[in-house]
Amino acid sequence: MKKIPFNIPLRTNNEIKYISSVLESSKFSGDGLFTKKCHKWFEDYLEESKVLLTTSCTHALEMVAILLDIKDGDEIIMPSFTFVSTANAFILRGAKIIFVDVRPDTMNIDESKIEQAITKKTKAIVPVHYAGVACEMDLIMSIANRHGLYVVEDAAQGMMSKYKGKNLGTIGHFGVYSFHETKNYNCGEGGLLIINDENFKERAEIIREKGTNRTKFLNGAIEKYTWVDIGSSYLPSELNAAFLYAQLEFSEKVNIKRLKLWNRYFFNLKGIRELQLPHISDDINHNGHLFFIKVKNIVQRQDLMNYLSLMSINTAFHYVPLSESDKCNAHFEFRGDNKFTTLESERLLRLPIYYDLEIEDIDHVCEKITDFFND
What we know:
Structural class: alpha/beta
CATH topology of the largest domain: Aspartate Aminotransferase, domain 2
Largest sheet: 8 strands, mixed
Strand content: 5-15%
CATH architecture of the largest domain: 3-Layer(aba) Sandwich
Mean pLDDT: 96
Number of helices: 12
Shape: globular
């Protein structure tokens, strides 16, 4: 029986070649040739945005929290259905996280619930583009502009996805991508900070360089660099950048393949009445990052997972909502009703999807899911 893992990290033909060239160059630390190549690739692709490679998406979010001067008592609005880093980055600066409910069709933040959660303490809104499917950014930006708030797009899963023709991560004041090995494009661990507000570009470079003006020094603007601000070491090594650049060169090919696999799942499973499938609106281009189904409840989800495991098919549920944490409840408040977040998260099951998966593998998974419900 063929085993189908949940994920296999993407590998192209050039990672080893590029990493070898870094080892031969003796320049292993950050901001070398391949970091510059990655920056150039993203700045061309994202057009007017300033970008900085980081050691992780988590660290990119932490940089945003510093850039926004988040302080004790500031409130940050986000969904509870997200990875812990989305909240941690702001809690570390003293913020209180305000959770609002999600939409059951996309599992994204319910844009209609945001405004009622805003107070005079609110500093920013953090929409999370779950599964690489865009939140309703026009309305979110309108709300933010009306109340003088910043918008930070957590597009960890959203590289190559678009909302009304705009790349995710380029619509708010900031955006972040992840290059963890579970993402469409990876370097093991890595991230990207996207800066769309001119006022933050220079300071972002300082914070990324441990709070020094080293970038100005390297560019010949000053004779020596010094400590000028708070910061940390957020630069990835050239080895990570070389690995990532090999994948950026294949980005369009990868995107096409993943969408083909995603569409095959949708086509095969849309006739099963017991399942709810992802919803993609007409003005959104997603990236096939993950394919999820929703079943009746948490009990049926576990039964299906067990059955597929017996068939050598590995599946996974996703986030336990952050609001379910007992130990961190001093750091957050769920504002408004939790009508869908917990309930829908318990129904959600993710199916295998990765670049090396083939159409016949998708058909096999769907056949076994069909058998489960027929039985």
